Amino acid sequence: MKRVADLAALLQALRAEGCQVPEKTDDSEYGKFGWVLDPEGNKIELWEPPPGP
Fold it and tell me: Which CATH number fits domain 2-48: 3.40.190.10, 3.90.550.10, 3.10.180.10, 2.30.29.50?
């Protein structure tokens, strides 16, 4: 899992670069989650933590 600051912007940039990015994302009380596939097809999880207090 890789922690990111702005999941939506990162996923958009990865798509623009031609990376395989599944459309599905998950938004929960633990933050936002998205995924990208590396060249070998391994899924890498990206996590944007929820806003702090």
Answer: 3.10.180.10
